[in-house]
Design a protein that fits this description.
The protein is of the alpha+beta class and 298 residues long. The chain has eight helices and four strands, in the order H-E-H-E-H-E-H-E-H-H-H-H. The protein has helices at 26-58, 79-88, 100-111, 136-143, 155-198, 200-208, 213-251, 265-297; strands at 66-71, 92-98, 124-130, 151-154. A four-stranded antiparallel β-sheet has the order 2-3-1-4. Helix 1 packs antiparallel against helix 5 (155-198) and helix 1 (26-58) crosses helix 7. The chain is elongated and about 100 Å long.
């Protein structure tokens, strides 16, 4: 009598519930909070960079050929003659005189207003559009022949330097946010390696039951993804009220150079995508790290 024998098949393992007791790890309980702090800082830096980008976009219109001309408020200055000379100067396309009330509005955030403001010698100011081929230096030389005290400022040069400084600060914020994200990846990779060593007896038992390295690594990858996603959304949730307070603080300061803060659709989308993008990167890195660690421990 022959007894039919069958080749043993590898055990099938459930994909819904992990075979490793991750919930018993202290590191697994604290990891989401570490990720939350990192994500909160990264979200604040990312939003600040986007706010500076909105300033650059709003001030990105062409200012070439624009100049500001000021005549100091000195007794005996013939402002009418100066304006006539300015309009008739070679290379000047148009001249617009800025009214004193408008100048007061522009200077009030800087000087604070009050009674002392009325006694300040505010210069007579004009905005000038120069023709193609002319610049502020040529206009300055032409005016200094009759009005040596006239001040000619080049809008384009000043604005270009200002935008260059803002752009450098914006890229610094993005770089810091990227470095924080890299730090989160490193933290999760180290936690994953430590978790493999902690659960290695169970991992060895799973191998004897037919589990492969890819299956075990998938367990660690899934756990890292869930913990990072959880901590990422906690961090973004904490960053939103902080950014709201910063927005109220900046909104109360009447300073023209401060950015117009606000949560645009692009900003909200970036904040929502940040935890998901970080979690996907963590899953990729932790999965590769787990496979390499398991092969080394065999």
């Amino acid at each position: 009598m022959e007894i039919a024998t069958e080749n043993p098949r590898p055990a099938r393992f459930s994909r819904m519930k992990p075979d490793l007791p991750f919930d018993r790890e202290d590191a697994n309980r604290y990891l989401p909070w570490v990720i939350a702090v990192i994500t909160c800082l990264a979200a604040c830096l990312l939003t600040a960079g986007m706010w500076l980008g909105s300033v650059l976009l709003a001030g990105g219109h062409d200012l070439s050929g624009m100049a500001q001309v000021q005549l100091p408020a000195i007794e005996g200055q013939d402002t009418e003659a100066f304006e006539k000379t300015l309009r008739n100067a070679q290379g000047v396309d148009s001249v617009r005189r800025i009214e004193s009330e408008r100048l007061r509005e522009l200077l009030n955030p800087w000087l604070g207003g009050g009674e002392a403001f009325d006694h300040l010698p505010i210069p007579v100011t004009f905005e000038v559009q120069l023709a193609s081929g002319y610049n502020a230096d040529k206009l300055r030389k032409a005016l200094h022949k009759d009005f040596p005290g006239a001040v000619v400022g080049d809008y384009a040069t000043w604005m270009a330097d200002f935008q260059r400084a803002l752009d450098g600060l914006r890229h610094a914020f993005y770089l810091l946010a990227l470095m924080l994200s890299g730090a989160a990846l490193a933290v999760v990779a180290l936690v994953t390696r430590a978790s493999i060593q902690l659960h290695f007896p169970i991992v060895r038992l799973l191998h004897r039951m037919g589990a492969e390295d890819a299956y075990v690594a998938r367990q660690f990858r899934h756990n890292a993804f869930i913990q990072t996603l959880k901590g990422g959304f906690i961090g973004v949730a904490a960053a939103i009220p902080l950014l709201g307070l910063l927005r109220l603080f900046l909104g109360g300061m009447e300073t023209p150079l401060l950015p117009q803060t606000g949560f645009s659709p692009a900003c909200i989308g970036a904040l929502l995508l940040l935890p998901l993008a970080l979690s996907l990167c963590v899953a990729l890195v932790s999965g590769q790290s787990a496979v390499a660690m398991l092969r080394r421990l065999h």
